[in-house]
Amino acid sequence: MKKRAMILTAVLTAAVLAGGGYFPTDIGNRLTQTVSAAKKDSDKKDDTSESEGSVLDQATLMYQQYNYDEAIKLLKQQDDFDTNKDYMDLAAKCQVAKSTLVEYPLEQITHVFFHTLIDDTGRAFDGDSKSGNYNQVMTTVSEFNKIIQIMYDKGYVLVSPHDMATVNDDGTMSRGKIMVPEGKIPFVLSQDDVSYYHYMDGDGCASKLILDENGEVKNEYVEADGSVSVGDYDLVPLLDTFIKEHPDFSYHGRKGILAMTGYNGVLGYRTDIAYKTGENLQDDQKKFLEDNPDFDYDQDVADATKVADAMKAEGWEFASHTWGHMNATERSAEDLKTDDQKWKSYVAPILGDTDMIIFAFGADIGDWSGYSSDNPKFQYYKSAGYDYFCNVDSSQYFVQITDQYFRQGRRNLDGYRMYYNPEMLSDLFDVADVWDSSRPTPVPQM
Questions:
Q1: Which residues cross the membrane (predicted)?
Q2: Percentage above 70 pLDDT, the chain
Q3: In whole angstroms, what is the distance from residue 370 CA to residue 349 CA?
Q4: Rounded Cα gap, residues 234 and 221, in angstroms
Q5: How far apart (Å, rounded) are the C-alpha atoms in residues 283 and 277?
Q6: What's residue 47's pLDDT?
Q7: What does the pLDDT look like over 14-41, one tens digit per residue?
Q8: Which of 117, 233, 267, 389 lies in disulfide reach of 221, CB 3.0 to 4.6 Å?
Q9: ∠ at Cα 344 (343, 350), nearest 5°?
């Protein structure tokens, strides 16, 4: 029908262009009506095809990410399921794959984390007072890309603490269940301090997360010459791109967790209230406002919120890292409460509420044996809606699941760990295969 419409349109157009000749009005009308009807019929078929393609694409992605029940549910919801061979074939594939899944032991799920990634090592490791710290706690883009590829090749699959434990209606916790194909290895990934702090300006790291012209989350990156580029310069867009190419690296669409402070804002936007009130400003905040006289606080909040919403829609999660990067071991319960109220006032409205806290410095509120009901810090955090707690622990696995909380240790994949304890990472990758030769050695001791 589409071909016929194109032919009729050509005939009609040729007759009109000839001009001055005899062309009966009724024939022209009939041809126009035929072309119009053909176009509507063609458009209708195209719409149906696009709809089928969209459903099939969604279900295929679910299949690739081991979410077989949801894929089958989506397919069977379609009115033409019983007559659509593609739908029925994919549903059958899901049933077969589901029957081969095995339950993975939750206490054997590791959690790795990174700080902001370094893109330009020449600027990061330039010998100034910050270089040593960058060398200790950060990972380069090159290293990250190699680590992720090796872990993927080994069968690692991204999951979330929310898959490992669930919160009941009464606030208690229950164990989750993670079902994966034999040989797949679930793991959790997080990134700390994705605020692009002022002190990092000019040091070869991304400057913020933005939405590009296609609505995708990318980084803004300031080149050495001051020009601004947009692309994959830090963990979030790098991992997004990798999962687009390797969807089976994600369990049910999971990505990673961003552990967020608030005192310099979030995601590279200057969203803390101090930038609006001008009160209690640090020196670098004062300089920022002086250098940016047209700064629009409300616009930064709006832009950051759009980016956060886009990230959550793509499987990313957010956790509190305390508003002021506080050492929870050293600070009092009252200090932590005051700090958390700032997080809830100035960060949660942008990123959304969270039930996860990832402790800054890895400084936990209890020892290895667990949290007790008479621990005032735990009492506060639990009452404030936190159920998932993460510290830093060098062991391969550290997982506690009780009826009151979920707790997990995290492993730092940074310069310090790779240089001084490469054997502790051998289950994940061989450091020799990922080490960035542009790193100065020795890495400074902590």
A1: none
A2: 88
A3: 31
A4: 9
A5: 15
A6: 52
A7: 333 333 333 333 334 433 443 344 444 4
A8: 233
A9: 90
Joined together, the tokens standing for residue 173 give 């916790």
Amino acid in the structure at residue 253:
G
Q: What is the dihedral of CA 203, 205, 209, 211, to 10 degrees?
A: 110
Helix (H) or strand (E) holding 189: strand 185-192
How many alpha carbons fall within 13 Å on the CB side of residue 287?
8
Residue type at position 143: E
Burial class (CB in 10 A: 0-12, 13-18, 19+), 15: middle
Q: Which one, of 388, 389, 392, 396, lies nearest residue 412 by Cα?
A: 392
Closest CA to 336 of 264, 408, 384: 384
How many C-beta atoms surround the C-beta of residue 71 within 10 A? 25
Q: How far apart, in whole angstroms, are the C-alpha atoms of residue 292 and residue 313?
A: 31
The three-class DSSP label of residue 301 is helix
pLDDT value for 358: 98
Give the tens place of pLDDT for each residue, 72-104.
999 999 999 999 999 999 999 999 999 999 999
Say how many residues make up the chain: 446
Using DSSP's 3-state secondary structure scheme, residue 102 falls into strand
Residue 182 in 3-state DSSP?
A: coil
Model confidence over 278-312: pLDDT tens digits? 999 999 999 999 999 999 999 999 999 999 999 99
